[in-house]
Structure formats: C-alpha cells, structure tokens
Design goal:
Order of helices and strands of chain B: HHH
Largest sheet of chain B: none
CATH topology of chain B: Helix Hairpins
Strand content of chain A: under 5%
Largest sheet of chain A: none
Number of helices of chain B: 3
Radius of gyration of chain B: 16 Å
Oligomer: heterodimer
Shape of chain A: elongated
Largest interface: A-B, 59 and 56 residues
Number of domains of chain B: 1
Structural class of chain B: mainly alpha
CATH class of chain B: Mainly Alpha
Shape of chain B: elongated
Helix content of chain A: over 70%
CATH architecture of chain B: Orthogonal Bundle
Mean pLDDT of chain B: 90
Chain lengths: 124, 93
C-alpha cells in the first residue's frame, strides 16, 4: 500500500474540499432516497449523487493524480461521461416499468397526480 | 501538514460514503415494492463506485480507477436488465 504523495498546499486543500463536497452531496441524495414518501419522488433523489457527487469526487481524483504525477491525468472523465449518459436511460426505463406495474394493478398514478394538481390550482 | 489534511478528508469522505451505502442498504431491505429495491441497488452501485475512487486516491494507485469503471458498467447493465424484467417478466425474449 503506497503512501499519499506530498502535494503542494493549494492542491491538497482543493482535493480535500472537492472530496468532502462530493461525498456530502452523495449522502444528501441517498438521504432523499430513504426519506421521500412515494417512489416517483424517490427516483429523483439519487441523481444528485450521479451528477454532482460523482463530478466532484472524480474532479478530486483528477487533480490529485495530475499534480502528483506532474502530467494531466484525465481518464476519470471516462467514468463521468459514462455515468452522465447512462443514468437518465436506466432511471427512465425504471420509471416506465414502475408506471406499467402501477397501471397493471389499477392504480393510475398519472391521473391521480393530474387531479391533485387541478385541485390545488382551483383552490381546494 | 498537507498530507494530514488530505488523509483526514479522505477518511471523512469514506465515512460519509459508508453512511450513504448503509442508507441505501436500508432502502434495499425495507423498500415496499420491487422498483424501490432496484433503485436502491443502483444507488448502492454508485456509492461503491465513488468509494473505490476515494480508495484510489488514498493508496495512490490507478488500478482502483479501472475497478470503478467496471462497477459503473455493471451498474448500467444490472439496472437496465432489472427494469426490463419488471416491465416484461423476462429479460431476454
């Protein structure tokens, strides 16, 4: 197990801030996953982690390896691009499957949402 | 001094990501319906991938990057296949 490279001070602080911000954003997304009441609200929460959480942690990794090896190391961009492309696809497939299952059981979620919104706009 | 800041930040972010993994495991176990469990599994994959990136920083090895890439690929395939299964009842028709 190799030790940490001794980075210059600005780079170490930048890497530390990016790591902490990314981890806290991911934690916020996961808290949303556990706390929201319905599935269609829950499906939005983890995308916080797949967009900005992953971006900050991978940025920290890019800065760390670029500064420590004194050359641009940008291969973490691969993960970022892949995650950014695939997350909407998988979550859209999952939401369509959930909608299909709700309708097959006779619970029309979309119609109920439209009715609730109409009730709110007309004032109870 | 700088390596102290860095190692402290790395262990804190690993702790935070570990808490996030525990929360998604809780949703995976409790989740009232199958789609909640699939969503929690996707979130667990993401948290494990980010945890591996932080391990890569703390050991200064780039091999963890490849493991994280493979986990990202597996996350896409697993969630797409499970969503297809929930929709149609079978994966390959």
């Amino acid at each position: 197990m190799n030790a940490l490279y001794a980075l210059p001070e600005w780079a170490a602080i930048l890497v530390a801030i990016c790591l902490l911000v990314g981890a806290l954003i991911t934690l916020a997304g996961t808290i949303g996953l556990t706390r929201f009441p319905t599935f269609y609200q829950r499906i939005h929460a983890p995308t916080l982690g797949t967009s900005f959480g992953a971006a900050f942690i991978l940025l920290a990794s890019m800065i760390y390896f670029s500064v420590s090896e004194a050359r641009p190391v940008l291969h973490e961009l691969l993960i970022l691009i892949f995650v950014t492309i695939t997350t909407p696809i998988t979550l859209m497939l999952l939401a369509r499957a959930a909608l299909y299952r709700d309708r097959a059981e006779g619970r029309d979620v979309a119609a109920n949402a439209v009715e609730a919104e109409r009730g709110e706009t007309t004032g109870q | 001094m700088t390596s102290t800041i860095l190692s402290l930040a790395i262990s804190t972010s690993q702790l935070v990501l570990g808490i996030a993994m525990c929360l998604s495991c809780w949703r995976l176990i409790k989740g009232p319906r199958a789609q909640d469990r699939v969503l929690a599994l996707d979130s667990l994959y993401l948290n494990a991938m980010l945890m591996l990136v932080t391990f890569g920083i703390s050991t200064s090895q780039t091999i963890y990057f490849e493991a994280a890439l493979v986990i990202g690929l597996l996350s896409f395939v697993a969630t797409a296949a499970l969503a297809k299964f929930l929709m149609r009842g079978e994966v390959i028709e």
